[in-house]
Design goal:
The complex is a heterodimer of chains A (about 290) and B (about 290). Chain A is an alpha/beta fold and about 290 residues long. Chain A is about 40% helix and about 25% strand. Chain A contains 11 helices and 14 strands. Chain A has helices at about 5-25, 40-50, 75-85, 115, 135-145, 150-155, 185-200, 210-220, 235-240, 265-275, 280-289; strands spanning about 30-35, 55, 60-65, 70, 90-95, 100-105, 105, 125-130, 160, 175-180, 205-210, 225-230, 240-255, 265. Chain A starts with a helix and ends with a helix. Chain B has one domain: MetI-like fold. In chain B, strands 1-2 form a two-stranded antiparallel ribbon. In chain B, helix 4 packs across helix 10. The longest helix of chain B has about 40 residues, at about 15-50. The two termini of chain B are about 15 Å apart. Classes of the chains: A alpha/beta (about 290), B mainly alpha (about 290). The interface of A and B includes residues 40, 56 and 210 of A.
């Protein structure tokens, strides 16, 4: 019981410290930078498009994303973090539904399917289906459906830019197709599958979610017929006989908290935020005025 | 002992056949451990040889796309988060265990027991989600910073190991020195005094292995920590800055890793395996001491 006053004193000091920092956090506008993990398709595309990739003399590429930026491997965590943190900035695939956060326009161009199509929004990357060797009839038919007018309209309904470069002629093939790979592509592939099933119910399609590298590995091992990747295949992979087919174009949207009153960022501002040159929202607001 | 040996000698061949399913089930566990061990060594050894164990462990820079594989910041991250979680969870868990086993009425004991088993059955992704949606904003609004930090990860982790440590410590306390506790009471010591000076010292070994098991779980926890710790690869700077643990690093990057990157992740898994193995050996030694 003799220790009781000590505890009370400690409690008061602790309370004093915390209430101090409450005051400090009110005018805290340090940007919380959230990035995807090194090697993910979304991160590679983002770093490449916003000038965060630096080519070194020995041919390697350095990613200049600041070391202190938070990293997540899931679009859901990315979205929840940005939705809950007034100072956060992050990026997502445009096809990920995101009503909880605000999408900024970049260089005064908003990230819409329309703007990607007419070339004014240039922050996008291809979704690619890869196959190995001779394609089976069913695979050929499915891929030609995806890259036809019908496939294109499905992609656009889901905020992706579709590919429309072949005419799909209904072909009653039979067979089984296993598709696996990138989690970014899975949502769209599922939609393609559902639409294709109505036209061609005799082809059984299984869509499995893993990631780009595992998708390619599955195709090379013969486990999957089609691999979905959200990054370009590496030279090493192409040498092994991987055949890429672009199935859609995905925009990369930069997202901020809804309470943030910034609506537009320049690509240079985004580069500086991610490389750690800009650390406060105040600097951005000052520049924008 | 003698009787048991005699029994064994007189086992018939049919007895051996009867015990075969049991033997095979037990062998499965041994096979799994050896398979994991073999896989990790086969995957991780080449890169350890190539980079060197000291460079892997002590180099501070993790930039896999540039071929820099230093996991020192993540080792520190794991050590910090684990010890902070233990610091929060262990005293609370031991006091709870002591309360449950000696001080609380039976009906309340039942309530605690149920709540604890529910806590330990909650999947870690749920803990992570809870942490992300509630603990992260609280930390951000109270202390400033991003909210995803070493502190947040430690709090969530403490919550996760608390039921494990409590359950084991409670078992240890309940089984230890029942007579001595009553003797102390009879000698006039009050309940709290007898608890602290008679029961807890007697249950020391059991409590230590409970703590060790909690720490082993904390070291291995991945999903929940990954969701609330920010996962920065920079060296840990303060309680309110993010950190990345070794397990989170593996889980984050294995999906896209190829070649040396993949091998470096396997090497860090090997390291982790060695750490958890040594914790288990310590638990074993403590358990033997108890007998």
């Amino acid at each position: 019981m003799t220790k009781l006053p000590l505890f009370i004193a400690a409690a008061i000091i602790l309370y004093g410290c915390t209430s101090d920092s409450v005051g400090a956090s009110n005018n805290n506008d340090v940007i919380t930078v959230i990035s995807r993990e090194d090697g993910s398709g979304t991160r590679m595309a983002f770093s490449e498009l916003f000038g965060l990739h630096q080519r070194n003399n020995d041919g390697t590429i350095s990613d200049l994303t600041a070391e202190y930026s938070a990293v997540t491997n899931s679009a859901a965590v990315m979205m929840a973090s940005v939705a809950g943190n007034p100072n956060a900035i992050g990026y997502l695939s445009l096809g990920t539904p995101c009503s909880l956060v605000k999408t900024v326009s970049i260089d005064n161009v908003s990230s819409t399917v329309e703007n990607i199509k007419n070339g004014s929004y240039r922050f996008c990357r291809p979704f690619i289906a890869v196959t190995l060797g001779e394609q089976s009839e069913a695979v050929k038919d499915f891929l030609s459906f995806i890259t036809s007018e019908q496939g294109c309209s499905i992609a656009e309904k889901n905020s992706f830019v579709g590919i429309n470069d072949s005419e799909y002629i209904k072909n009653f093939s039979k067979g089984e197709i296993t598709v696996s790979g990138s989690s970014s592509v899975v949502l769209l592939m599922q939609k393609f599958k559902d639409a294709y099933k109505i036209i061609n119910p005799d082809v059984k399609i299984t869509v499995q979610q893993s990631d780009s590298s595992s998708g390619i590995a599955a195709v090379l091992d013969g486990v999957s017929d089609i691999g979905m990747i959200s990054r370009p295949p590496t030279e090493n992979e192409l040498e092994k006989g991987i055949m890429p087919t672009t199935i859609a174009i995905d925009g990369i949207a930069v997202i901020i908290n809804r309470s943030n009153n910034i609506d537009n960022l320049t690509s240079e501002q985004i580069r500086k935020i991610y490389s750690g040159e800009t650390t406060c929202w105040r600097e951005i607001t000052a520049e924008n005025q | 002992m003698l009787a048991r040996d005699n029994g064994r000698k007189s086992m018939k061949i049919s007895d051996y056949f009867e015990s075969l399913p049991f033997l095979m089930s037990a062998a499965l566990a041994v096979a799994a451990v050896s398979a994991i061990c073999f896989f990790l060594i086969a995957e991780g050894m080449p890169v350890i040889k190539k980079i060197g164990i000291s460079k892997l462990v002590f180099s501070k820079s993790w930039r896999p796309s540039e071929g820099k594989f230093g996991i020192f910041s993540m080792i520190l991250g794991t050590v910090y988060v684990t010890s902070m979680a233990a610091l929060i969870a262990v005293p609370t868990a031991v006091l709870t265990a002591a309360f449950m086993s000696k001080l609380c009425p039976t009906w309340l004991y039942k309530v605690f027991k149920t709540v604890l088993s529910i806590l330990s059955a909650i999947p870690s992704v749920v803990y992570g989600f809870f942490g992300l949606m509630t603990v992260v904003p609280i930390v951000r609004n109270t202390f400033g910073g991003d909210g995803t930090s070493m502190l947040t990860a430690s709090v969530v982790l403490a919550l996760m190991i608390f039921p494990t440590v409590t359950a084991m410590a409670e078992a240890a306390i309940s089984s230890a020195a029942k007579e001595n506790y009553h003797s102390a009471l009879a000698l006039g010591a009050d309940k709290v005094r007898s608890l602290f000076f008679v029961v807890l010292p007697a249950a020391k070994n059991g409590i230590t292995s409970a703590v060790a098991l909690g720490i082993a779980r904390a070291v291995g926890e991945t999903t929940a920590v990954m969701m609330v710790s920010g996962n920065q690869t920079a060296m840990p700077q303060s309680l309110l800055k993010g950190i990345r643990t070794i397990t989170a690093n593996i889980a984050l990057e294995i999906g896209y890793a190829a070649d040396d990157h993949r091998a470096a992740l396997a090497a860090s898994a090997l390291l982790l395996f060695a750490v958890v193995l040594s914790i288990n050996i310590i638990i074993g030694i403590l358990g033997r001491k108890k007998q």
